[in-house]
Amino acid sequence: MRAAILAATRGVLLDMVVAGENREACALLCWLNPTEAARISKTPGADLTSDPAVVGFLQDRFRDYNETVGSSERICSFVLLKDPPSMAAGEITDKAYVNQRAVLKVRSEQVERLYTLEAGADVIRV
């Protein structure tokens, strides 16, 4: 599932973590590929995590993805993280991979906000 989602974003996401265990839908914690996101942005030098063109592109890609999968794999929301995964917090493995379980634990507050009705400006609905 993770590989299919990353492919759907056409390189705009560098990596992401899927949340959704024991939930009705999936939500994503995402890190942008700054080079690819900047190509989509219409505002040079903007904060790419809140750039309307980048956000809109990803919403469109996730909607397209949702049309091809069953309900258990549909994406309901996502957040574009500004802070990279932390090696000190165990979010990066010794082999330099993102430790999905650690990210979900360390960023559990953000995960919960992905599923609340009044989540905040950084949570983007699909």
Structural features, described:
This protein has 126 residues and is of the alpha+beta class. It has one domain (2-125): GMP Synthetase, Chain A, domain 3 (2-Layer Sandwich), CATH 3.30.300. It is 34% helix and 18% strand. The protein is built from five helices and four strands. The protein has helices at 2-8, 34-40, 52-66, 100-106, 108-114, and strands spanning 13-19, 26-32, 75-80, 123-125. Strands 1-2-3-4 form a four-stranded mixed β-sheet, sandwiched between helices. A hairpin with a 6-residue loop joins strand 1 (13-19) and strand 2 (26-32). The relative contact order is 0.19.
Summarize the structure.
By secondary structure, this protein is of the alpha+beta class.
What labels describe this entry?
126 residues, four-stranded mixed β-sheet, GMP Synthetase, Chain A, domain 3, globular, 5 helices, 34% helix, alpha+beta
Give the CATH topology: GMP Synthetase, Chain A, domain 3
Domain count, please report it.
1
Mean pLDDT: 94
| H/E element order | HEEHHEHHE
